[in-house]
Structure formats: structure tokens, C-alpha cells
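quick q for whoever's on today - can somebody do inverse folding on this one?? i tried earlier but teh output was garbage lol. C-alpha cells:
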């Protein structure tokens, strides 16, 4: 997902098992790859958008300021795991297509699981914000069994865990077209939407204004509704944005 002032580009191609190769230092999926040298993650992107076939090609370098201790489980049985591996990182982007460059603070995480997300969760929302001494990450999940989990996390730049009081629930407007709900949290229970990046039938990504850990922040927020994702009509729409070559 590439967001600009005038245009956005989105590529998420689902590839077959034969397109995957990996070793101790990296992984390649089709023409794109990630390699780790012990200090820096190099992401080489070579993809095409859908349904309009425009290229996204270039290199992203991620230098973590610190690595966190380990993963969090999101469900009661431990079948879904999320690791906010590098909450505060130096990121440099150099794209050939479209021609663009950027450098600043960023974030890197991993997810893995043993069963489809829609079997375990009905919805969730997540956000991450830069702080003066690191980052704050909020994760709220609603599980299929009716239970829920709220993670209110704060990390120093070196990846160490810091104390954080769970923020108050804050109400945001649903997305304009698909009406995706966007619940979030803030110290004072107030937040606002600065920009909507993605407004899809089951997923939204937004830039917010909120107060976290006593600081004015601009979290990047995601909201996922898995009941929408499993709708047969939505499943028929997916190949137009997520092709399988």
C-alpha cells in the first residue's frame, strides 16, 4: 500500500507455494523479497497493482532501534500470534516506480496463525503511534466465542516495555462509503480522523489525531470486520484487488 498526496497504489498478489523460497537470512515470494543482515531489513518490492496494472518497484530499508522480547497471543487457545517486533525503526524508501523517496520513523511486525482468522475472530481494531521516546500500540479483538482482549502497549525506542494506562474508548465516524466502524482509544476518550487511506467492504485504514501516553499523537489505525470478509459477495470481489497469477 503506497499513499501519496495525489494518488495511491495498492498491490496484494496471492501466490502459489511454488513462488516461495526462504533460508536463514531471508524470504522471497515471487519477485519480491526480504533479507535480514542482523542490523537491517531490506525489502525489495517488485509488484503490480490491481485492477489497474501499475507497477510498484523499489527498495525499503528498516533499521530497528530495538527488538521486543516476543509475541502476544490474540486468542484463548494460542492459535494466533502477533509480534510487534520493532515498534520504533528508522525507515528509508527509494522507489523506482513510481519515482518517490521518503525517510522517517516506522514500524515492523509479524503475524502467524494455525487457522483462518474468520474462524476465531469477528472483528478487531489496531493502531500504532510514534511517541517522543518510542511508540504506543493498541490492539482490541472480538473473538467468535464472545470474549475480547485489549492490549495497550508502550515501548521505548530500544524495544523495552514501558508502563501504560489503558486509554479510554473513543468514538470515530464509520467510513464514508462502506460504513466500516472505527472504534479506537485515547487518553481523554476523544479522537478524530485526519485521513482515510482505505475504505473497503471489510477493512479500513486511517490516520487519526488522538492523545496517547500523555502526548498528542497521530496513530495509523486499522479496522477489520471479518463477518463482512466472509460474505459470499465480498469473496467474489477479492480477486479484482488480490489476484492469483
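ok took a stab at it. sequence:
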Amino acid at each position: 500500500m503506497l499513499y501519496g498526496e495525489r494518488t495511491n497504489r495498492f498491490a496484494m498478489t496471492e501466490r502459489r507455494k511454488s513462488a516461495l523460497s526462504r533460508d536463514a537470512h531471508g524470504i522471497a515470494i515471487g519477485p519480491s523479497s526480504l533479507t535480514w543482515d542482523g542490523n537491517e531489513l531490506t525489502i525489495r518490492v517488485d509488484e503490480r497493482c490491481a485492477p489497474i496494472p501499475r507497477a510498484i518497484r523499489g527498495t525499503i530499508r528498516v533499521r530497528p532501534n530495538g527488538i521486543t522480547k516476543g509475541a502476544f497471543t490474540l486468542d484463548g487457545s494460542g492459535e494466533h500470534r502477533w509480534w510487534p517486533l520493532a515498534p520504533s525503526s528508522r525507515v528509508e524508501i527509494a522507489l523506482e516506480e513510481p519515482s518517490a523517496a521518503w525517510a522517517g520513523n516506522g514500524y515492523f511486525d509479524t503475524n502467524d496463525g494455525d487457522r483462518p482468522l474468520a474462524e476465531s475472530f469477528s472483528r478487531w481494531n489496531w493502531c500504532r503511534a510514534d511517541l517522543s521516546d518510542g511508540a504506543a500500540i493498541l490492539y482490541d479483538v472480538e473473538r467468535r466465542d464472545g470474549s475480547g482482549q485489549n492490549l495497550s502497549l508502550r515501548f521505548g525506542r530500544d524495544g523495552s516495555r514501558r508502563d501504560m494506562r489503558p486509554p479510554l474508548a473513543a468514538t470515530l465516524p464509520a467510513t464514508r462509503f462502506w460504513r466500516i466502524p472505527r472504534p479506537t482509544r485515547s487518553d481523554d476518550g476523544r479522537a478524530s480522523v485526519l485521513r482515510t487511506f482505505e475504505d473497503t467492504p471489510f477493512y479500513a485504514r486511517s490516520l487519526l489525531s488522538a492523545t496517547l501516553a500523555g502526548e498528542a499523537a497521530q496513530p495509523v489505525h486499522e479496522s477489520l470486520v471479518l463477518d463482512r470478509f466472509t460474505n459470499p459477495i465480498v469473496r467474489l470481489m477479492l480477486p479484482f484487488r488480490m489476484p492469483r497469477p
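fwiw The two ends are 19 Å apart (CA to CA). also The first helix runs from residue 117 to 120. so keep that in mind when u check it
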